[in-house]
Structure formats: structure tokens, C-alpha cells
Amino acid sequence: MASKDTELFSPDLVFFDWEAQSTDEFFTKLGAELKQRGNINDGWFDGISTREKNYPTGLHTEAAAIAIPHTDPQFIEKPYIAVIKPKTPIVFQPMAGMGDEVPAELIINLGVLRDGGQVAVLQNLMNIFMDKEKTADILAQTTQEGMIDAITKYFE
């Protein structure tokens, strides 16, 4: 499983120092990048915004505040996983309505097409981010290649 999933990470889909005042502003910016690369179709913004409102993806872990937004496969043209480390945290609502708002320090957007793939990747990422040392390693990255290497080495 891991090799298939890790192939979805690409240095050109790692972004640093983004700023956004809301998840909608964030999704607009990310959508423009993904559309330009042929990863998504025109329904993606509405799809991901609606899904995020209905099923929030912010996650407080002991190590960091993260968000793992995703949408339905019909909005994906070419599978991908995008990684964004914003300049300042972007507020997401908590997953399963558990706890306070999540000022996400790291956002990983899943564009997975294969059956069950999104769930498998999501579980894998949650396991990684439950580990303080792995999370610190990932958050310390300052280059696109370094970010991809740090995340993919922890995939199981």
C-alpha cells in the first residue's frame, strides 16, 4: 500500500508560507494551483467546501494542529496529495466536532481516487501525526523535497 500512496506526493504540490483568513480563501488558493496542474475539475471547490462544512477535518494532536481536507473522487482528475505549511495557522473546525477550532500548522489535502484509498491514507497520516518526533521532523522541513522525504519515510 505505502508505495502506491507515497507516489501521490510530489514536491510541486508542497507549498510554504501561504496566508488565508478562512478555509474558503485557502481552498480558493489551493484549487487554483491544483486546477492549473490538471489535478481537479470545476466542481472541486464546491465539493471540498461542502464536505469540510459537513465533515470537518481539523485534528488536534499532542504534537501539532493539522487538517486533512479531502473531497469526493468525482472532483479529482489526476490523483494527488498536496502539503501546505502556512505562514500562520489556518483555522479549521475539529474532526467529528471534538474540541475547539483547530489552528492548523500543516494541511494535507487528499486527492485519492482508488476505492478505500482515502481512508487508508487518512489513517496512515493520523498515525504519523500522533507521534511527536515524527511530527516535529515533518514540521521542521523547509524545502519541498525535504517535506516529501519526511512524510513518505513514515508511511507504512
TrEMBL record:
Pfam family, one: PTS_EIIA_2
Protein name: PTS sugar transporter subunit IIA
InterPro entries reported in the protein's UniProt record: PTrfase/Anion_transptr (IPR016152), PTS_EIIA_type-2_dom (IPR002178), PTS_SugarTrans_NitroReg (IPR051541)
Annotated SUPFAM superfamilies: Phoshotransferase/anion transport protein (SSF55804)
Gene3D superfamilies named among the record's database cross-references: Mannitol-specific EII, Chain A (3.40.930.10)
Signal sequence, renumbered to the chain: none
Keywords for the protein's UniProt record, in alphabetical order: Sugar transport, Transport
Keyword Secreted carried by entry: no
PROSITE patterns named among the record's database cross-references: PTS_EIIA_TYPE_2 (PS51094)
Every PTS EIIA type-2 domain range: 7-154
Species classification: Bacteria, Bacillati, Actinomycetota, Coriobacteriia, Coriobacteriales
